[in-house]
Every structure is written in C-alpha cells, then in structure tokens.
Specification:
Layout: E1 6-9, H1 19-34, E2 38-41, H2 55-66, H3 93-102, E3 105-108, H4 112-124, H5 147-155, E4 161-164, E5 171-176, E6 180-185, E7 193-195, H6 203-213, E8 218-222, H7 229-239, E9 247-251, E10 254-255, H8 265-271, E11 280-281, E12 288-289, H9 299-307, H10 322-328, E13 339-340, H11 343-356, H12 359-371, H13 379-389, H14 399-403, H15 415-421, H16 426-438, H17 445-459, H18 463-475, H19 483-490, H20 492-507
Parallel strand pairs: 1-2, 8-9, 10-13
Antiparallel strand pairs: 3-4, 4-7, 5-6, 11-12
Helix pairs in contact: 1-10, 9-11, 12-13, 16-17, 16-20, 17-19, 18-20
The structure holds glutamic acid.
Residues 10-12, 44, 203, 207, 221, 225 line the site of glutamic acid.
Length: 508
Amino acid sequence: MNQNIRVRFAPSPTGPLHIGGLRTALFNYLFARKHGGTFIMRIEDTDQTRFVPGAEDYIVESLEWCGLIPDEGPRQGGGFGPYRQSERKNLYEEYAMELILKGYAYYAFDTPEELENLRKKQEAKGETFVYDASVRESLKNSLTMDEQAVEKSIVSGTPYVIRFKFESNQVIEMQDLVRGELSVNSSTLDDKILFKSDGMPTYHLANVVDDNLMAISHVIRGEEWLPSLPLHVSLYRAFGWEHLMPQFAHLPLILKPTGKGKLSKRDGEKGGFPVFPLDWKDPESGEISPGYREEGYQSDACINMLALLGWNPGTEQELFTLEELIFEFQLEKVGKSGSRFDPEKAKWFNHQHLQMMPDGDMIAAFYKALKLNGVNCDKCQIETLIPIIKPRINFIHEVWDQSWFFFQAPSSFDPGVIKKRWREDTPDQMSLLVEAIQDCEPFTIESIESGVKGLIVEKQWGMGTIMNAWRLLLVGAARGPGLFELAAFLGKAEVINRMKTGIEQINR
Ligand code: GLU
C-alpha cells in the first residue's frame, strides 16, 4: 500500500450519475490501483436545495456494478471519516473564520434583493454584475462596515455569507497534470461565497478543507471544475497549506456524438442510447432514464469504452479488461481535448467483450436467455449453439432472436422472400432435397453438407437458389446462421418435417 497516494471521487447526490461522472470515478480508481494507493468516495451534499433522494444509493450501486469499490467511504468507513459532508457540517465554519481572521475572507450582509437590484442595474447597461474587488468597497460587508456594526449585525441574527477576498490584479499560477502550467489574473474572478447564510459551507470551502483533512494527493475530476481551480489553489495558499496541496488533473469533456458540445441527457433521449450507468427513476416526475446495465451492456464493456474516452494507451489496442487498464493507465496519457461519444462504438465494445466472456459465464447466460423463452436446453446443446450464435450478437438479450429457430418451427414465411426466392420449380427441387436429406447418415454437419451439395451439383442447380429456398423452409425468412449447422442441431425428423410443412404452406 502506498500511503501517499490518496484520491477521491466526490459526487454530489443531485441526481443520477452521468457516464462522465462514472469515468471520473474510473480514472480515480485506476490511478489508485496502479500506484497501490487509496480510492476514497466522499459524498458532497452540502447544497440541501439540490439534494435528490435515492441519488447516493444510485451512485454507490453504479460503482458496485462496475467493480469500482472504494477503500474508504460512507459505506466502508475509514480513518478520515465521516465521508458525507452533511455529517461534517460543524467543522467548516472555523475554517471560514480562520480566513476572516487572516484577512482572506469577509462577511457580506447584502440581501438577495439588493444583489438582484444591482444585477438588474448592470444588465440595463449591458454589463454583468460581479461581486469583486472593484465593487466590494461600496457594498454591505465587513470591509466597509466598522467592527461594531459587523458585530451588531451578527449578534442580531442578520443573515450573512462569508466571501473569499481576491486581491485585485494578481497573477495566480497553477499546475495541472493534463493541461500543464496555467495562470489567471485575479481581477477576472469574483469573490466566491465560501459559507452560506444557512450555516453550510459551499462546495468550494468544503471541498478544499476535506481534501486537506483527508490527505488527498491527487484531485482527478471533470473539466467543468477547471474554472474553480484558481479559487481552490488560492484557498490552499490562504490556509498555509500550499506544501500539502494535491496535484490536479482535469479530465476532458465527453462530447455529443456530433462532436459539438458536452454529452447531455437529451442527446441520449434523441439518439436512443443511455447516458447513465443504471436505469434512473426520477423521484418527482417518475420519468425513467435508461441505463447501460438494463440495456444489456456488460459492465466490463462499459468500463472499457469509458476508459478510452479521454485516455489513450498510446498503442492500437482498444480492448482492455479492468486489470489491463490498471496496468496501463497513466494520467500523462489523458488528452486535453474533448472525446466524442459514439453510441455504435459502445455496442461494438459490448460485442467484443461478449466474445471474451469465460465459457462458464456464457453457458449460464445462454441458459437464462433461453429459459426466459420457455426453452430448457441442456449444456451440450448450449455448447453447440454458442459458437454459432455468439459472433452474431451484441447483447445477451439478442440470443433468443438469433436462435429461436433452433427450437421452434417457423409459424409464417416472409412474403418478400417468397416473392424473390420461391420459383415455379422450387417445390420439386425441395422435394428432391428432402429425399437427399433422408439419406444423410449419420446426420452430421459434414454428411448433410455433402448430401445437399452433391444433389445440387448432380442436378446442376444454382447453389444460392437452393440454399435460399431451403433457408426459407427452415427459418421462415432470409436470415440465420449456417444451414448445415442448423440442420444437424434440429435432427433429421425435424428438418424433414419443417421442409414438408413449408412446401405445403407456401404453395397453398
Ligand atoms: N462535488 C463535485 C461534483 O459533483 C466534486 C468536484 C470535485 O471533484 O472537486 O462533481
């Protein structure tokens, strides 16, 4: 165990976890495992107005589905808990006070109405109101009020917030493992609220305090948090923790399939693909958003797909197990630019991971899929089916659609195929084929193939014509796997029965 490497996944339980959030968890997990470090889960639930019941359970279940189990967290416990910020709420105020005492923060008593008015006034001038060094000297705060007035306001219960005080015109230098050296002028930043009038810290204060108290070494999170970095870095400096500051890595956005803009829930709805790991039922509207798990994806395929959204192994390899990802993963190989999400590629990953599935698991999955459709197959039959069906499916739930004709005779015959493939002489040809099949002994793939092909050659028929008509009789349509394999599986009696019934029905 490398005690110096400690990373955290810090979701806010404000709704279902987007696949972008799952990717953040995955990269944290990979980094921790690769370096023998600790993977921590911290629930950031200080914004009570955005709290959604069930969201934390959903996040935990999503990680469990993917096998990304935290070493420390609300469920696991650990030496740095509690791991839910709402359970730590009493410890943040003193940090806000410390900043006030050091002159890095101040009380602000401006009411929401007053701020709204200022906003409107600025808007009317075509400008945006920003609470910063240029205006704070003219507003109602502990920088403009005398000590007694501040004291009186607090004692009398006047609501206040605590704001960070950015000095004007300072260059803030930052380092990011993905983006390198960054800098920003403090005059472009507003005096962000650190502590709210409801007695709770904001995300910024709680996040930095907790990262420090939990001895986090690397903050790996989405690019949407990059604009917060100057404040976070300034907070570390203000607290005097610069030497303990974690290293930062901001992961690139996951983009829409068009490549333009961030992948959203609406893109999933429009394109018919999930953007959440599991089904999510909105507790208010009851609306259900589909999840990868319920759509039939394997979690290993999902993880493989997510890993390659933003990270590049530097080789042509695309298929990875979780163990291989742990071995290969490097933060240095995370790219700066957004990665386009491709729903077709997601299916491809699932197809590939199905092909990699261990035999025992595959047998069990086939057994379940067939049983669900009333077929009780023995192990031997399933083992015959697997090599025929497996290459043809992207998802386990497609097993039945690709294999029902192994267990049931077609109940109808595709009229389009009849029109195209069933000619005047086809019934006679098929009757002769029945006779040839009768003679195949033993009834194996090889003997059927040589019997059928022998007849075609002898009669100088077209191979395609005969095979298409034969397929129509056995399957009812122009689809399905190799016919010799299918016939051998069905057995002679069933093949002949299907052929005779088909010839009769089509000719009726
Ligand atoms: N609570 C933040 C979120 O929901 C965490 C951001 C961070 O990792 O610092 O993404």
